């Protein structure tokens, strides 16, 4: 046991020790954040490209750290997934997004506004996820048809046998499913057949080059046509300029989001965008 202890000590050189300590600190901070509800949502509009109308929002989580300020999701979601803390965080995101979207829907005349929520594989492994979704809908009063759950390709590629059943249960509530970052995985076409998907989100890496690189344009148009053939909606992610917008609109992409329209906004700013003060 002594020898093992010595070897261990040698592995942890000062620099690594610091990294290790920082990781532990982050984990402890994240646990506290879950208890104290240190999370906030931003909302990015999803726009109908031909009319410019806002048809939906994507909810994106932020961590409001008491000392470090706003921490973006890519800096804490992986740790939250490893530690299982994504389950309570994700449930909070879902309930909060439904609650806010229901309030905005009440003030909106005409077409309903949908809200899209990102979901991790770890959440889908929870047997009670369909009940959690149903309860978020009934507590908020948001119609199921106004909720979209976004799944990544990797989630579907490495899926468990129970994943399909879970997704079918959620779909039977009336909730729609989107594939995020479409085109970046390696078996995209196979799981479009296997899973009950409604919406394809074309990854930003295609949209970035759509006006400049013929191959990117051809692939993007191909994805849009694939969506049409399968009666799926297509959302282009990360639209930043007018050139990208016109290429996508000409290619009959239905919906889009990106900094060209709006960055993710807090609830106050999003409310003003949806209901401009007259
Ligand atoms: P995502 O789902 O692909 O979300 C799109 C990301 O692109 C967001 O980053 C958004 O702010 C950013 N974005 C939108 N338009 C543009 C644009 O025109 N240009 C550029 N450069 N970026 C744009 P964000 O908010 O930092 O989120 C990063 C990722 O974190 C998300 O990627 C998603 O995978 C994950 N995430 C965010 N919120 C949640 C959540 O509540 N649960 C889970 N499990 N993951 C989340
Ligand atoms: Ca997403
Ligand atoms: Ca995405
Ligand atoms: Ca360009």
TrEMBL record:
Residue ranges occupied by any EAL domain in the UniProt entry: 23-278
Lineage: superkingdom: Bacteria
Protein name, entry field: Diguanylate cyclase (GGDEF)-like protein
Residues of the full protein shown: 473 to 750 of 750
């Amino acid at each position: 046991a002594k020898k093992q202890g010595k070897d261990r000590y040698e592995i942890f050189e000062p620099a690594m020790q610091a990294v290790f300590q920082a990781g532990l600190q982050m984990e402890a901070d994240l646990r506290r954040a879950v208890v104290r509800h240190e999370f906030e949502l931003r909302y990015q509009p999803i726009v109908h490209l031909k009319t410019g109308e806002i048809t939906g929002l994507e909810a994106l989580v932020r961590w409001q750290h008491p000392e470090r300020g706003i921490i973006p999701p890519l800096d804490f979601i992986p740790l939250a997934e490893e530690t299982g803390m994504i389950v309570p965080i994700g449930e909070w995101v879902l309930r909060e997004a439904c609650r806010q979207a229901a309030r905005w829907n009440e003030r909106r005349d005409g077409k309903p506004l949908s809200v899209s929520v990102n979901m991790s594989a770890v959440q889908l492994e929870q047997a009670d996820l369909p009940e959690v979704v149903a309860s978020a809908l009934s507590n908020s009063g948001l119609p199921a048809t106004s909720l979209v759950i976004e799944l990544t390709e990797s989630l579907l590629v490495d899926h468990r046998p129970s994943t399909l059943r879970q997704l079918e249960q959620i779909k039977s509530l009336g909730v729609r499913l989107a594939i995020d970052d479409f085109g970046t995985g390696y078996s995209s076409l196979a799981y479009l057949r296997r899973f009950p998907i409604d919406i394809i989100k074309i990854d930003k890496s295609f949209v970035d080059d759509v006006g400049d690189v013929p191959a990117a344009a051809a692939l993007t148009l191909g994805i849009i046509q694939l969506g049409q053939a399968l009666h799926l909606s297509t959302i282009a992610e990360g639209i930043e300029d007018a050139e990208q917008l016109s290429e996508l609109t000409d290619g009959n992409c239905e919906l889009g989001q990106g900094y060209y329209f709006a960055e993710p906004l807090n609830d106050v700013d999003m409310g003003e965008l949806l209901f401009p003060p007259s």
